[in-house]
Amino acid sequence: MASSSTTTKSLLSSTFSASKSSSSTATKASLLSFLRSTSATPISQKLSHSHNSRHHYYSVCPIKNVLTTATESETSLSKYPDVDLVSSDSKPTILVSEKLGSAGIELLKGFGDVDCSYNLSPEQLCEKISRCDALIVRSGTKVTREVFEAAKGRLKVVGRAGVGIDNVDLQAATEFGCLVVNAPTANTIAAAEHGIALLAAMARNVSQADASMKSGKWERNKYVGVSMVGKTVAVMGFGKVGSEVARRAKGLGMNVIAHDPYAPADRARAIGVELVSFEQAIATADFISLHMPLIPTTSKIFNDQTFSKMKKGVRIVNVARGGVIDEDALVRALDSGIVAQAALDVFIEEPPQTDSKLIQHHNVTVTPHLGASTKEAQEGVAIEIAEAVVGALKGELSATAVNAPMVPPEVLSELAPYVVLAEKLGRLAVQLVAGGSGIKSIKVTYRSARDPDDLDTRLLRAMITKGIIEPISSSFVNLVNADFTAKQKGLRISEERMVVDANPEFPVDSIQVQISNVDSKFASAVSENGDVSIEGKVKFGVPHLTCLGSFGVDVSLEGNLILCRQVDQPGMIGKVGNILGEQNVNVSFMSVGRTVRRNKAIMAIGVDEEPNKDALNKIGQVPAIEEFVFLKL
Ligand SMILES: NC(=O)C1=CN([C@@H]2O[C@H](COP(=O)(O)OP(=O)(O)OC[C@H]3O[C@@H](n4cnc5c(N)ncnc54)[C@H](O)[C@@H]3O)[C@@H](O)[C@H]2O)C=CC1
Ligand SMILES: O=C(O)C(=O)COP(=O)(O)O
Predict the structure, then answer these.
(1) Cα maximum dimension of the chain
(2) Which residues of the chain have pLDDT under 70?
């Protein structure tokens, strides 16, 4: 490895002191803007910047599905849609499309402009959404791909004021870089209580007897019920609601079994519940209470086949999601007597058709999705979701993110400077790749004194991805969509964590980014193994480039960078410095690295301003300079 030296100490120290404070602000701002969906980055700004730049652009080659470089003339601005964007200092607009508790609304009003518009048609929602930064829904709003498309990049967060997110197209949200958060805890008890209410009401024919009496009848013999005590209830889905139902059912003297492929056995044991297989649960239960999410593996999991395996006369409660039951099969099972009764709060289609055979069935008790509808739960959910949405709009990582990694705040603050380093290295590496090269394979190596398992690299990987993709495509990358976008663009990003002898106080010692099988526009950036290779470190909170190809350098990654390879001889720094000085371009940092004395050297010059073409040409004409490149950080 080459040694690196910095030209003047005073330059170094003044840069550090000047950059230290600005860098910590920049670090924070950069981190926040990344964590906020960058889909909301003013695209117009991004475009005008790109349009004015004299440097290479890149676009996605749709056939090879590989990132390829292209020149400005090949880059058409017409592919970018007109986007109605708020400026970053205006208040965010938050659309609340279903009734939300007043405490939550007040909290939201303290942060943004709140538009409570209920009962919007899909078309009305699509029309409104392009003017909204956040959308808050309950189970009644379908947040489809069309909604994300109509948002035109402005929607940063969808808040689901409740648990189930099956009404939100998560794949589309992720693709559009839109964070989805939910409020998973505040309605647990309400849902569990409703489950128990339905269980008891069904067992004792409460709703049927009520309707009968109101129609003037007195039918005591017709509505003889069944007792719950001593009966077996199978709780299907032993999560938050399921566990609370189990606890309450035990209090009623029932024998409780549960099925949940992912539930820990010790939690079940603590409540006195036996975890059993699906088959065992449905074959032995007198009552079955459903508490699993609606996901592909649970969709219509209760169907003709599974009903046929149930104990004859079983009673079913569903406070989870209508879609876990094949409703036509349930009608058949009710008609045949396999299922004696059902009590349903949720339906495949909500509201269901009024003439639905299931709803009208005399052995079925129904409620219109009331599980979460208690005053207490609704206030709790409203506050929980308002806090999550405001936090997301502020750029904080959410503890209830559904489609993004949850990074604990302490990890986040420790990683903050490395997050900036990671993005800059990605930006730098991609600019070193020659136009026309297809970028496919990127290797990231993290060196750290800590155990590899202690380093959560998702955030860093996402930042490197952002740094690589954003300068060369029209995609906007954030924590939500980084992996998806990389995959979509055919980028293979592999990671390696290496333990090195460094200060364990810091989570990372260095990050190296290598791009394989590409040509470089700066041959010195190519390492011995043929990859474009750069490495960086954080020094005093400031990201630095420390290695380029086989050359050691030391330059703070701020502003712009000129890299030159020259014959190692005296006077080179002065020559280039003079050319820049003539153009009033301020040098912020300079570092020279070489492999062998008086042989080849790399000069890395940080500049505050962008030198004009003339200055760059003059640098290129300095006889000892063999190659140079100007890079924007
Ligand atoms: N009716 C209503 O108003 C309400 C309905 N819900 C619904 O209740 C359900 C449960 O909510 P929470 O307990 O808060 O969620 P949770 O995530 O805490 O629990 C769900 C459990 O289902 C389990 N599970 C996943 N696949 C399964 C499978 N194939 N078989 C059995 N279990 C499986 C999971 O491991 C998890 O433990 C959700 O569908 C939610 O949408 C929740 C609140 C109110
Ligand atoms: O939280 C859930 O999953 C629910 O089903 C509650 O739905 P809601 O918010 O009452 O429309």
Answers:
(1) 109
(2) 1-89, 397, 406, 436-437, 594-599
> How many CA atoms are closer than 13 Å to the CA of 441, on its beta-carbon side?
6
In degrees, rounded to 5, the angle at the alpha carbon of residue 454 between the alpha carbons of residues 450 and 457 is: 105
Ligand at shortest distance from the CA of 190: 1
Tell which atom from ligand 1 comes closest to the C-alpha of 241. Answer: 13
Q: Which residues pair with 535 in a beta bridge?
A: 512, 547
Closest by CA to 604, choosing from 535, 517, 513, is 535
At residue 471, what is the residue type? Answer: P
Omega before 62 within 30 of 0, i.e. cis: no
Reference 346, options 403, 289, 429, 304; nearest CA is 289
Tokens encoding 439 = 């970028």
| Ligand 2 centroid from CA 143, angstroms | 14
Closest CA to 484 of 247, 148, 226, 182: 148
Ligand nearest to the CA of 195: 1
Task: Please report, as a single letter, which amino acid is at residue 404.
Answer: A
What's the pTM? Answer: 0.74
CA of 494 to the centre of ligand 1 (A): 35
Query: What is the SS3 string spanning 47-72?
Result: HHHHHHCCCCEEEEECCCCEEEEECH
**Contacting residues for 359 by C-beta, under 8 A, at least 6 apart:** 347, 352, 353, 366
Tell me the C-alpha to C-alpha distance, in Å, between residue 306 and each of 283, 294, 309, 330: 9, 17, 5, 10
* Full strand arrangement of the beta sheet holding 542-548: 492-499, 441-448, 510-516, 532-539, 542-548, 551-556
Q: Whose CA is nearest to atom 39 of ligand 1?
A: 293
Closest approach atom of ligand 1 to CA 301 = 29
> Which stretches does DSSP call E strand in 391-458?
438-439, 441-448
Amino acid at 334: L
Element (H, E) at 469: helix 458-469
For residue 383, CA distances in Å to 105, 107, 157, 182, 429 come to: 8, 7, 16, 11, 44
- Residues serving a catalytic function are 321, 350, 369
- Centre of ligand 2 to C-alpha 294, Å, is 12
Q: Which atom of ligand 2 is nearest to the CA of 370?
A: 10
Contact (Cβ atoms closer than 8 angstroms) between residue 422 and residue 464: yes
Structure tokens given for 83: 């986007």
Pocket of ligand 2 (CB under 6 A): 138-140, 161-164, 187, 369, 371-373
Complex ipTM more than 0.95, yes or no: yes
Gap from CA of 164 to ligand 2 centroid (Å): 6
Atom of ligand 1 nearest to the CA of 162: 43
What separation in angstroms does the CA of 10 have from each of 289, 378, 589?
73, 61, 10
**Per-residue model confidence as pLDDT tens digits over 109-156:** 999 999 999 999 999 999 999 999 999 999 999 999 999 999 999 999
